[in-house]
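Pair request: fold both.
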Amino acid sequence: MGLKNIFDEKILTEVREILSARHETIAVAESVTSGYLQAAFSQMEQAMNIFHGGMTVYNIGQKTRHLRVNPIEAQNTNCVSDAVTRQMALEISYQFLADWGIACTGYASPVPELHIKETFALYAICQNGSIVLHGRIRGSGKNPYEEQVYFTNEILRHFSGLLRSS
C-alpha cells in the first residue's frame, strides 16, 4: 500500500487549493504521528510551493533544543501537553518561515509505566505567530501504526475545516 492510499486525498487537495490560492505555506512539527503529516503534505501536487518542511522530534532533549519547548514543562509532562504542542507549532512555523504551523504530540500505544491506558493525540495549529486551533483526538483503539495514520488524517481534517472557515 502506497502513502497516497493512507491519507485522505480529498482533504489534501482541498488544503492545497486553499493554500495555493492564498499564497500561504505550512511547516510541521510532529511526534506521535512520526512523520506522517510531513509525508501527507509532501504527496500534494506542487507540494514544494506550499509545504516548507518539518521535524519529527520524539524526545525531550530534541524538543527543547530544536523547538525551544520549555524544559520544565517538557519534563513534567513527558512532552505531552497543550503547552508543549503550542510551542512546537509556533516554533516550527517561525523556523521554517511558514504562514501556518501544525504540531502534534501524544501516545499511539498505551504506556503502562506512565499510567497511559488510552491513546490520544494533542495538536495545535498556528497562523502567522498565533495559535488559532488546538485540541485532543481520542485514539481509535487500533495498533500503533493505524493510530498514527488515524491521528494524521484527523489533524488534516481539522486543518482543512479551519482553512474553509477562515
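--- second member of the pair ---
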Amino acid sequence: MELVFFTFVFAGLFVFLLSSRRSFSPRPRLTLVTTQTQHGETTHYELEGKCYVVDGDTITIGYQNIRLAGIDAPELDHPYGKKSKWYLVSLTKGHRVRAVFHGEQSYTREVATCYLPDGRDLSAEMVKAGFAIDWPKFSGGKYRHLEPKDARKKMWRADARQKSRRLPHN
C-alpha cells in the first residue's frame, strides 16, 4: 500500500515539474537605462532574456521581435539563409541575450544591438563568420571591416537588396 502511495506521489510530482518547467526559467527583463554623456543624459531601453532565432538577423525575446542592428543576413529561402539562421542559433543557445534598443523600427521589429553575456555583439559575430553583411545605410560602416573577403559575392542577393533600397541622393 505504501509503495502505491509513494508511486502516485512521485508521479504527481514529476508531472507537476514537467508542466511548470517554464516557471523555473527566468523571464525576460525590461530595463530603462539612463547614461551620462558629455552632451547630457541619454535614455534607452534594454531587454534581456532567452531568445528564439527567426532568421539570420531577427530574434525574439519574450514577445518582442528584434532586428539585429546594422547588418543584413540572407532570407531563409536565399542561398546561405538557413546556414545563417543556424549559426545564430549556435551563438545564442543556452544564453540570455541583452538587446539595447535604438528607437527605430524595421517592419514589425524593433531595431537593437544585441549582446551575448560575455559582451560580444551578435551583429559583429554574424558578419565575422560570413553569415551576414554590413548594411552601411544603418550601421555607418561599423561592421564592414569584419566581412570576409568573399562575403558580398557569397550573399549576392542580400547585397543586391541593399543596393535596390538605397535612397536617391539630393
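Observation on the second member. The helical segments are 2-19, 21-24, 81-92, 122-128, 136-139, 151-154, 156-164.
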